[in-house]
Amino acid sequence: MMNNINFDRYQTIIIKVGSALIAPDARACSAEYCLPIANFIKQCRNAGKDIILVSSGAVAAGFNQLGLTEHQLNLEQKQALAAIGQSIVIRHWQRFFDQDVAQVLLTTDDINNPTRALNAKKTFAQLKRFGALPIVNENDTVVTEELKFGDNDMLAAQVAILTDADLLIICSDVDGLYDDNPYLNPKAKLIEFIEPNDTRCQTYAHGSHNPRSMGGMLSKVQAALTANNNGINCIICNGKTEAYSQLWMNHNPGSWFLGKPQRQVSATPSDKASLSEA
Q: Which residues does the annotation say bind ATP (predicted)?
């Protein structure tokens, strides 16, 4: 049965792309997976949807720019690499778009401080009026380890909440959440639908298998649940296989986390039924 999720009705969408897709195989920023994602973003914008891109990759870009080989870096080194790599990441994305892109750097302090959060929200609104694509990253050059979002997954969820988004798409390098680690267990099964308040899904999540990624599936699930608690639906899907393109056919491209029914765009009973039967 087709997973009818009615993608047409989602207006404000946050798309998170991690380091594993931006700098695959520990290489410098690559177009391999980013170009299809950029084309999907352009398709969404042409359909009248508002898109905010949350992009990791600054530390990885700085790491490769300097040709470093030592993986064990302290906080100061990572912050310096982020400062070098941030402009590289922005230039990397800009080449895929005809319109302007806008860099927005945030920390947990910005999100938690009401005045700064309101200013950030106003900036996003003005960027929308300008027609620019916001590209958000954590301000790694100033944030301390204790305040980090965790590979930008939680940052993406917080940006979704801040901007009253309808949908959060987390592009990973796996198909979604499995009931076991698919890299160790070939019989692991993809969990296609996660009910609201189903925190058991956290027990299935694991840390990152990629040396360039920080959070792994656990941080993605935690981000999805954070968005869900605010009524925002979330999808974790495989950015390497362009699974997100299935949304145009109203198919569930990975693991669908249903938000609590407090927002107008939360999934309808028919959405829930079709996904449950998939």
A: 16, 172-173
